Amino acid sequence: MTDAFVSAKAVFRDGGLVIDEPAAMRNKPLANRFYFYLMMPAIIVLACITLYPFFWLIFMSLHKVDMGAAGDTWNNFKNWTRLGSDRKFVQGWWLLLKYSSLCMLFEVSLGIMLALILNRSKWEKLLVTVFLMPMMMAPVIAGLVWYYLFNSTFGWYHWLMQSLGILGDKSILGDKATAMWGIVIVDVWQWTPLIILIVLAGLKRVPRDQLEANMVDGAGEIRNFFSITLPNLYPFLLIAVLLRFMDNFRFIDAILVLTGGGPANSTKILPTYLFDVSFTFFKLGRGAAIALTLLVVTIILGMILVKLFENPSTTKSSEA
User: Fold this and answer.
1) The domain 85-319: what is its CATH number?
2) Where in the chain do CATH 1.10.3720.10 domains reside?
3) CA 268, CA 278: separation in Å to the nearest integer?
4) CA 196 to centroid of chain Cα atoms
5) 109-140 b/e with 16+ CB inside 10 Å = b?
6) Mind listing the pLDDT tens digit for each residue in 260-297?
């Protein structure tokens, strides 16, 4: 006797005894194509706003597309072959890696440290709200605020650094030796709160029983952090690092307001150079080639970061 027959119910219908079908047989599961049809409008919209511009970018990178040109002049991969000899392109990559590395180093370090201090503290909610305020500010507005703070005539931070003997007579943003540090400070100030928020969420998920068991075995706070807390934070750190890594590779709002790539191209990271090529000189073909290289390298570095921040416990369990 089948399970379906056992779960069926005998009912009287139309003057006779009828075996009623079970609920599982009456409510049959929907086909997969039904869910595909539901997602179809969103898929079409995403395809229009992502796939079409992507293939159009590839087309432009293979053609001479200038202001007023038709955009269909084949240039024999000239946009690509000249990248290797473009000094500003190579320098832009170096400055971008330097800028992104400094931002990630300070933001992750400060974010973890401040999250540990705020976790389960008496004023946690209030302080988190205060720390999140810079992140709520538009990057252009943040750049303007710090531009006036760094101003060599009336900037308060400029006066403070000169009074402490940290800075000489030159402006923070006007000197090649300090301009990069100036834009890094702005990025760290605005986006460290994002790291704090993500790490705080991870700290709430750390198993208390593991921490207490480790402390019973004689482990201190530092050993507890590296053996229990940090491994549990790996997935959250991966999210934080990937978000900031991608933002550093594409957001140039504050840099354009603060320095515009100067002085003497000392802060002209690759996205800033891409902006100049595409929207200042309107060399859209060259700009498309630079943008594609930036996209490919971003994807590759993102995959490397995912591998580096992979949870060791997950890796060991999968190998077992």
Assistant:
1) 1.10.3720.10
2) 85-319
3) 14
4) 14
5) ebbbebbbebbeeeeeeeebeebeebeeeebe
6) 998 989 999 999 999 999 988 888 889 999 999 999 99
